[in-house]
Amino acid sequence: MNFGGRVVIADWRCDWIGLGIAELLARNGCHVRLAVNGMTAGQTIPQYALDAWLATLHELGVEIISHIRLLGIDAEDAYFQHTLNSHSVVLSEVDLF
């Protein structure tokens, strides 16, 4: 399976699902940006498992962006709001949401 392209994953739960999808897509050739609503991706799973998983995502080139929530999408951009200061965040050039 090879998806390719640029992907944004909006993860409001900060659990294993966002991490797993990010890893799967990165291993299959995607440039992945994982946008999480909390302090860090996977913050709800045990630290001993989280550290290893975050290291794997780092090695795969996954970009993790914390403290943002999804507001909307269009053909090529994803629109977020920073949860700490309410500033707008736009992730451009996205092929898959």
Q: What report would you give on this structure?
A:
The chain is of the alpha/beta class and 97 residues long. It has a domain at 6-69: FAD/NAD(P)-binding domain (3-Layer(bba) Sandwich), CATH 3.50.50. 26% of the residues lie in helices and 31% in strands. The chain has two helices and six strands, in the order βαβαββββ. α1 (16-27) runs parallel beside α2 (47-59). The protein is flat.
Features:
single chain, 97 residues, alpha/beta, FAD/NAD(P)-binding domain, 6 strands, flat
Largest sheet: 3 strands, parallel
Which regions have little confidence, pLDDT < 50, spanning 5+ residues? none
What is the CATH C level class of the domain at 6-69, in words?
Answer: Alpha Beta
Please bin the fraction of helical residues. 25-40%
**Residue-averaged pLDDT:** 93
Sheet-strand content, in percent, reads 25-35%
Number of helices: 2
- Shape assignment: flat
- Examine the coordinates and then state which fold CATH places here, giving the name of the CATH topology of the domain at 6-69: FAD/NAD(P)-binding domain
Quaternary state of the chains: single chain
Using DSSP, what is the number of strands?
A: 6
Terminal CA distance: 17 Å
Instruction: Assign the CATH superfamily of the domain at 6-69.
Output: FAD/NAD(P)-binding domain
What is the CATH architecture term of the domain at 6-69? 3-Layer(bba) Sandwich
